[in-house]
Design brief:
The chain is mainly alpha-helical. The protein is built from ten helices and five strands.
C-alpha cells in the first residue's frame, strides 16, 4: 500500500553460535540419524511445536553452517555435521569440520575477510554491519553469534592441540598463513610471523666455513648433540623472512616436543 513503509529487513546471518548449532543438530541425529525429514519434524526434534518465529531462525542457522542439507521434506543432517557429532573433541576430522562450518555462513566469511582472525572490536564490526543495512538489533545478534563461534573454535583448537601437539602446530601455521594473506601480505613476508620467544643457545654457537663456496655452516652445541644449519652466505631480505618463518615453526615444534619429553620423564 502506498504511503506505508516496508518493514526493515537485515541481510541474512546465523541467529545462534556454532556451538549451539552443533548441539541442535546432534539432537536431530540422535533421533533420526541422516534420514530425510520435513522441517516440521526437525523443529519438533528440537523441542518446538512446529515451524514458528522461534524455530525458523534456528533451522536457517543450521543450514548456514552447513549442518543441514536438502529442501522441504528432503532435509537431513549433512556429512559435515556427521563428522562433528560422531567424533570426540580432539579428533582431527572433527577439528577440520568445525573450522569449515565456522566459515560457511557468507556473513562470517565476509567478516573474517574484513577482520582477519575475527580480531576487531564490537564497535568496529557493528559499524560495518550497520553500513551493510543491518538494523541495530540484528547487528547485535550477528556479532554475538560471531563471537560465540570464534570462542568455540578456539576451545576446540586447544582441545585438539592437547591430543595432537605436532599436528596442531600445522593448524596454527595454516591459520597464520590465511591471516597474512587476508592482510594482503605474502604468507612468508618479513614480519608476517613473529617468534614466540628468542632462543639463545648455550654454549654460544660457533660458526664454521662450509666446504662449499658461497655457503656457511652454523653449529649449535647442545648437551644431546650438535644442531647444524647450512645456509647460503648472501641471503636477500625476502629469503631471510622466509627462513625466519620456517625457523619459528621449527622452534615451536621443538618446544612442544621438549615439553612432552619432560612430562614423560616426570611420569616415570
Amino acid at each position: 500500500m502506498e504511503g506505508v513503509l516496508a518493514k526493515a529487513r537485515s541481510p541474512e546471518y546465523p541467529a545462534i553460535g556454532l556451538s549451539e548449532a552443533i548441539e541442535c543438530v546432534k539432537k536431530i541425529y540422535d533421533k533420526d540419524y541422516q534420514n530425510k525429514l520435513s522441517k516440521e519434524v526437525i523443529a519438533e526434534h528440537l523441542g518446538y511445536k512446529g515451524l514458528s518465529g522461534a524455530s525458523l531462525p534456528v533451522l536457517a542457522s543450521l543450514n548456514k553452517y552447513g549442518l543441514l542439507e536438502g529442501r522441504g521434506n528432503e532435509t537431513h543432517v549433512s556429512d559435515l555435521a556427521l563428522m562433528i557429532v560422531v567424533h570426540e573433541r580432539g579428533n582431527g576430522d572433527r577439528m577440520v569440520a568445525i573450522q569449515k562450518a565456522a566459515a560457511s555462513p557468507d556473513l562470517f566469511a565476509e567478516l573474517y575477510q574484513k577482520f582477519p582472525g575475527g580480531k576487531g572490536s564490537d564497535s568496529a564490526i557493528r559499524g560495518y554491519l550497520l553500513l551493510k543495512k543491518f538494523i541495530p538489533a540484528a547487528a547485535d545478534t550477528a556479532i554475538r553469534s560471531f563471537r560465540e563461534t570464534n570462542e568455540f573454535v578456539e576451545a576446540e583448537r586447544e582441545a585438539y592441540a592437547k591430543v595432537n601437539p605436532e599436528a596442531a602446530l600445522q593448524v596454527e601455521m595454516d591459520a597464520q598463513l590465511q591471516e597474512a594473506e587476508e592482510r594482503g601480505q605474502s604468507p612468508l613476508q618479513w614480519g608476517a610471523f613473529a617468534p614466540a620467544k628468542p632462543i639463545v643457545p648455550t654454549p654460544p654457537a660457533r660458526v664454521e666455513e662450509s666446504t662449499r663456496i658461497g655457503t656457511r655452516k652454523e653449529i649449535i652445541a647442545l648437551d644431546e648433540g650438535d644442531v647444524i644449519i647450512t645456509f647460503p652466505e648472501n641471503l636477500s631480505v625476502e629469503s631471510f623472512g622466509d627462513l625466519q618463518a620456517y625457523l619459528d615453526l621449527f622452534i615451536k615444534k621443538m618446544q612442544r616436543r621438549a615439553k612432552g619429553t619432560q612430562k614423560d620423564e616426570a611420569a616415570h
